[in-house]
Write a structure and sequence with these properties.
Structural class: mainly alpha
Order of helices and strands: HH
Strand content: under 5%
Oligomer: single chain
Number of strands: 0
Largest sheet: none
């Protein structure tokens, strides 16, 4: 979908990048994969690609413990 300078009043999707980024972070922390995917797609539509380190997917490590 091409980037629009004027928002379509009939489009219910949010288009404010800071709001979308915060939504993406909250969805990721909550483990809500559907909302995370939607937020990523909405950010991509405005030309923003977000890539996280795999910190949330990695097992929890304790300090001082070597594997």
């Amino acid at each position: 979908m091409p980037h629009r300078t004027t928002p379509d009043p009939t489009d219910p999707r949010p288009s404010d990048p800071p709001f979308l980024f915060v939504t993406l972070i909250a969805a990721r922390k909550a483990g809500d994969r559907m909302l995370e995917s939607l937020a990523r797609d909405w950010l991509a539509e405005v030309g923003i690609r977000v890539v996280f380190a795999d910190e949330l997917d990695a097992p929890i490590r304790r300090k001082g413990v070597r594997e």
